[in-house]
Amino acid sequence: MDRRILFVALLFIANHVLGQHIKVDNGVVISTFTNKKDLPILSSNKIKDYSFLLGFDYLEKRWFYLSSQIGYLKTGGRQVNPLLTGENEDITESRSYIHTNTTFRGYVKSSGLMIFAGVGPYLNILTGPSNFESSLYKPYYNFKKYNVGARAEIGINKDINRFRFGIIGSYMRDLSPSASSEFLSLYNNSFSGSLTIGYSLW
Question: Looking at the record's lineage, which domain of life comes first (predicted)?
Fold first, then answer.
């Protein structure tokens, strides 16, 4: 009897948790640093870089579903100060991360399109060295090994046979600092736009 219950539970998990769609997101991330004292540290200019995420859309119901992703992105900040000389006039500090997120997406369908908005947490895990590279900040600042934040997103999906195509815009805001010194914490704000291609597993 216990084995039958276990089999039914595993079948249910496979049908719902493994996902209706597996997907790949490719896009661009635009990011900058902020701090609670509004000091102009690596925040005067934004940086742009590539992101790549693999994920699942699952537990899809009549008006909502869950989306989970894991992959690569790069964030940071840039500072241009003509009052400084040499390498300190234009400073960029950025790092690559393993990024994972899960969002709750509410949606409506109209004219064959799925229009959705979602929100959820994310975790960034640093993949490179933690020390800053510029001579101006290197003695004082280090990147955190990991940080957490909140992600909001809006987008459109179109299902064609077993394929899903979409366009997604998202905003990511750190809730814990990406980097810090003894006296100041730096948080990252990021905007991203991506194209997604998915395939239905069921």
Answer: Bacteria
Q: Do β-strands 21-34 and 185-200 pair in parallel, antiparallel, or remain unpaired?
A: antiparallel
Cβ 47 vs Cβ 76: under 8 Å: yes
CA–CA separation, 183 and 180 (whole Å): 8
Q: What is the pLDDT of residues 25-46, one digit of tens each?
A: 999 999 999 999 999 999 989 9
Give percent helix, percent strand, percent coil of the chain, each to the nearest 5: 10, 65, 30
Q: What is the dihedral of CA 126, 127, 131, 137, to 10 degrees?
A: -70
Contacts with 35 (C-beta within 8 Å, 6 or more apart), sequence order: 41, 43, 184, 185, 186, 187
136 domain residue, yes or no: yes
Q: Report d(CA 53, CA 19) in Å as an integer.
A: 16
Please check whether residue 5 lies inside any domain of the structure: no
| Confidence at residue 12, expressed as pLDDT on a 0 to 100 scale | 46
Residue 88 and residue 135: Cα distance in Å, rounded?
8
| CATH, residue 192 | 2.40.160.20
